[in-house]
Amino acid sequence: MSNTMTGSESAAGNRKVKLEIKNMTKHYDNGDGVENINLKVYENEIVTFLGPSGCGKSTILRTIAGFLDVTSGDILVDGQSIVNLPPENRPTAMVFQSYNLWPHMTIYENLAFGLKLRKIPKKTIDEDIKNMLALVSMSGTEKKYPGQLSGGQQQRIAIARSLLLKPALLLLDEPFSALDAKIRQQMREELKRIQSNLGITVIFVTHDQEEAMAISHRIVVMNKGKFDQVGTPDEIYDQPATLHVASFIGEMNFIKKDKYTIAVRPEDLLVDTENGEIDGTVSTVMLMGHYVSITVHVGDEIVKCYVNRDIGDHLQVGQKVKLKIGKSTQFPLSA
């Protein structure tokens, strides 16, 4: 698939292009890297690079930040090329998985450090820090040290420190992956709230498809240094462009039929005892609360289905059923 932005472009309307990556290639000595990347990111957008480890998503983020030089191509912010600028002169700020807070400094000192280097008056620094701590729900922590805060709180401070620099782009490289599941969910919600309040453009990197679906306006699904698909979460989920996208995002059944592999979500398989196009035998029935998850043997394959309780409560292991395929995507067997 081409590494050019497709899908959802018409939805951008007249919004300003904040970041443009043009024909960008980055090669490492071992041959890895990313090839001929093209992407437009619009003002006030959260765009997430999603893919397995080693697919090139962090490479793209680091070329934007200036921590890696591009092999060829260009990167523009607000229409101006930044590829020849050192990291400290780029209109970007980056937040990593590790919080990178100085443990010997108070929270105030951590936040004020970069602002002092820019010769910003102390009164302005004090006001900006007070407002930013309120924005990230960390008011009153100015005199504390990083070691006195939880992981989630430290990451809030790391985000606040980046935002205080008023970057054109906020870059986040797997920022929540070290946090436990509950805190991770809270931080996703916090990030969306902060982004909405400030109207800042965010480039996010993750391997967690649930995280990408939850926070993004658009998702770039990557595989082996290339784009497989660019689109909204709905487009990625409902209309996967490749088998890799179909298998990487959410749960998916792959049913071989004629000369095609049919990709169908568990919730899009209709289960009946009399009418359907595929014969199968129920192998498990599990109550999941408001729905029932069942698995069905279809030949040598096992297919997962989610059904309403009014259907699932009457199914039994060993029962013969028929499946009808609802919304689905077909791929040639050679795909």
From TrEMBL:
Kindly state one GO CC term assigned in the UniProt record. ATP-binding cassette (ABC) transporter complex
Q: Which terms are listed as keywords in the entry?
A: ATP-binding, Nucleotide-binding, Transport
Q: What is its EC number?
A: 7.6.2.9
Q: Which GO terms describe its molecular function?
A: ABC-type quaternary ammonium compound transporting activity; ATP binding; ATP hydrolysis activity
Say if the entry is tagged with keyword Iron. Answer: no
Give, as one word, the top-level EC class: translocase
From which domain of life does this come?
A: Bacteria
Enumerate the Pfam families for this protein: ABC_tran, TOBE_2
Does the keyword field hold ATP-binding?
yes
Gene3D superfamilies referenced in this protein's UniProt entry, alphabetically: 2.40.50.100, Nucleic acid-binding proteins, P-loop containing nucleotide triphosphate hydrolases
**InterPro entries noted in UniProt:** AAA+_ATPase, ABC_SmlMolc_Importer, ABC_transporter-like_ATP-bd, ABC_transporter-like_CS, Mo/tungstate-bd_C_term_dom, NA-bd_OB-fold, P-loop_NTPase, Transp-assoc_OB_typ2
Chain ranges of the ABC transporter domain = 19-249
Which PANTHER family does the entry link to?
A: SPERMIDINE/PUTRESCINE IMPORT ATP-BINDING PROTEIN POTA, SPERMIDINE_PUTRESCINE IMPORT ATP-BINDING PROTEIN POTA
**What name goes with this protein?**
ABC-type quaternary amine transporter
